[in-house]
Amino acid sequence: MLGMTSNGASVFDSNPSVPICKPADGSSLRKSERSRNTSDNNIDDNDRSDDDKEDEEAPEDPGTGGTAAKKKKKKRKPKKKRTSANASPKQSSPPRVPLTLLFPMGQYPVGEEVHYRNENAFRTTSEEKRYLDRVNNDFLEEYRHGAEVHRQVRRWAQKNIKPGQSLTEIAEEIEDGVRALTGHQGLEEGDNLKGGMGFPTGLSLNHCAAHFTPNAGNKTLLQKEDVMKVDFGVHVNGRIVDSAFTMTFDPLYDNLLAAAKDATNAGVREAGIDVRMSDIGAAIQEAMESYEVEIGGQPLPVKCIRNLNGHDIVQYSIHGRKSVPIVKGGDQTKMEEGEIFAIETFGSTGKGYVRDDMETSHYAKRGDAPNVPLRISSARALLSSISKNFGTLPFCRRYLDRLGHEKYLLGLNNLVSSGIVEAYPPLCDSKGSYTAQFEHTILLRPTVKEVISRGDDY
Predict the structure, then answer these.
(1) Which of the chain's termini has less CB crowding within 10 Å, N or C?
(2) Which pTM value belongs to this model?
(3) Residues 358 and 431: beta-carbon distance below 8 Å
(4) What is the C-alpha to C-alpha distance for residues 263 and 275, in angstroms, rounded to an integer?
(5) 378-422 pLDDT, tens digit each
């Protein structure tokens, strides 16, 4: 039996007179084998870390005569978790990680898909319509890319905007986030045409309903009692996602915000292929004007701002040729397959009618701009810069400042008066009133209506 001597004693017996087991040829263990065994043991010892050495000799116990050495186990230290080099990156706060790193396969979250109804219900299963959907995949991914940028930036804004901040600080934080997430800072010539801001950050307060963003030097601070409309657009390759929400810090205005949000959702539900604009306007007005808000102990009806509308969106142009009314009327124009619309609604405690007021900040080069001679040299230089950096995308005066333009107002006003650039002044209801806005972008795909800007927030 292996390990036993000829007289039956174990080779592991402590009696030194008993010979240990030898090889068959009677020779003692070769030096080379002993050396190799010793070397192997040393390697094993070196390979083990301190955490892996479980056993340690204990001192001899006098009561046992020292014939056996007891061993006690040493506690293992918990191993530190190693961060995998392939771990997926996460969005930072404020958001600055480009979406191409978060979605390396280039597949972005799908918006809310809503099946068509009635005579268009067949579209959901039609093979022809499904084929058209597939061939539009690149177009859809560009829109979904922009929509996810909008969601991530506004999620951060909703959590972090606080009274006491300047409007300039708020606008620049939002715009820095959009540029970082799209991966286009817009400082190199033509870069902004690839992606970035699709519409300047509107921060319209209280009775001002739309088109206000601070110009250079504006010191306005956000107050706790303010009602602020946050309206900005994101574009990827000219595919503009236009979406807006309203922020307040006083529950006094909750019903006003609820009215505008409900009205926008009503418009989104009603919209679809072959739907008449008048029907959408009627649904919006019914939802909006079912609310009232109590301010200063006085109940006030919430009115639709009747001279503000939603609109269709085309590549590189925030306003197409169709308008979506927010009150009932006689417009028989229909929505069509493949069109993109911004469904936006405005509620007001005032007259429900806006006028131009305050200093203009928003501009856009007209797509049908006339070819007229410009006598002012600064206007010619400015037009060249606008064409190369914005094309027909909307911009604001802060964006010209950012590109290094100085003393450009004379040239800019000349471009406006020549009909080449359109000015969009702030739109305001009566002073002392409060206005709210919500907005979504929808795609009328061949098979479904996709509310591309839908999020968990609105």
Answers:
(1) N
(2) 0.82
(3) no
(4) 17
(5) 999 999 999 999 999 999 999 999 999 999 999 999 999 999 999
